[in-house]
Design a protein that fits this description.
The chain is an alpha+beta fold and 290 residues long. The protein has 13 helices and 4 strands. It is 58% helix and 10% strand.
Length: 290
């Protein structure tokens, strides 16, 4: 069997992915500037912290939301470079910068609604479009920090993010009032469920089964380009009755897009099954080499 060299992302696909990230960042900017901020409602994570700090520093234009969301995200994006890869890091930085630029350009527009419940529902829906995550990036460094820290702590990424957001929403209650904090929790929940629908699953980890004639190349690429170990299972074709090796791997949801790209670069005909997992335990997954 002839081994194939690992291909780089094509220029056309890169342009398409960047355009989708721009659109995703624009949706988030519209939700934040025209729905949430005018009604003193926040999202969770770094975006929520940036919104609170922006509200608390009205006479400091250099500490606006657009500036804060970039500054606060950059350390986490950089820290995630070795953990999740340079493609994810650059996609995320590009998305955050687009979010900041587009949000700052919307200051002169009137809010779409000043009714809190409408702002909560539609702001959450638009914020949860999820195009940035779907195309290999992130607008919030909280999950990256969770992935990094949970390797050394006995918590899942979901538990860590929830723990951080409890403090953020409690802070929002002191700053904006209890009602606005409750609206904020609703916004976060709606956005979370919307992303869940858009990208078909937001579980912390995904179990992946891959059937490919180039299983050695695929397995090697997943290890060295994604940093995830694989397990080779013996299978047999139901129609041909031929022996086949099936690759089994577990990845975080942030890594799913990159994994599919890696596999299809090597073998466009590969059969991939991605399954949601309730929980993943074991030192080998948390300490995967990147």
């Amino acid at each position: 069997m002839v081994k194939k060299q690992h291909k780089k992302e094509s220029l056309l696909h890169l342009i398409y992915r960047l355009v989708m990230i721009i659109i995703g960042a624009a949706c988030a900017a519209i939700a934040i500037e025209l729905f949430l901020m005018p009604n003193q409602i926040i999202d969770g994570g770094i975006i929520g912290v940036s919104l609170i700090l922006d509200y608390l520093t009205p006479h400091m234009p250099w500490l606006s939301f657009s500036t804060l969301v970039v500054i606060l995200n950059l350390p986490f994006m950089y820290s995630g470079y070795k953990q999740i890869g340079k493609t994810f890091m650059f996609s995320s930085i590009f998305g955050v910068v687009c979010l900041a630029l587009i949000e700052s350009s919307l200051h002169d527009f009137d809010p779409f609604t000043t009714e809190p419940i409408l702002a909560t529902v539609f702001g959450g829906l638009i914020l949860g479009v999820g195009l940035v995550i779907r195309h290999g990036g992130s607008l919030d460094g909280t999950e990256i920090m969770g992935i990094l820290l949970t390797k050394k702590l006995p918590f899942s990424v979901g538990e860590f993010v929830m723990f951080i957001n409890i403090f953020i929403f409690a802070w929002a209650a002191f700053v904006f009032g209890l009602e606005q904090a409750m609206y904020s929790v609703m916004t976060y929940y709606i956005a979370f469920k919307t992303i869940d629908t858009v990208i078909q699953g937001l579980d912390e980890t995904k179990a992946v089964l891959i059937v490919s004639d180039y299983y050695e190349d695929v397995s090697d690429a997943i290890l060295h380009r994604l940093g995830r170990g694989t397990t080779k299972l013996m299978g047999k074709g139901g129609y041909t009755d031929e022996q086949k090796e099936v690759i089994y791997a577990v990845v975080t949801r942030l890594e799913v897009t990159k994994l599919k790209s890696i596999v299809h670069e090597i073998d466009p005909a590969a059969f991939i099954t991605i399954m949601s997992t309730q929980e993943t335990q074991g030192a080998k997954f948390k300490s995967a080499i990147h």
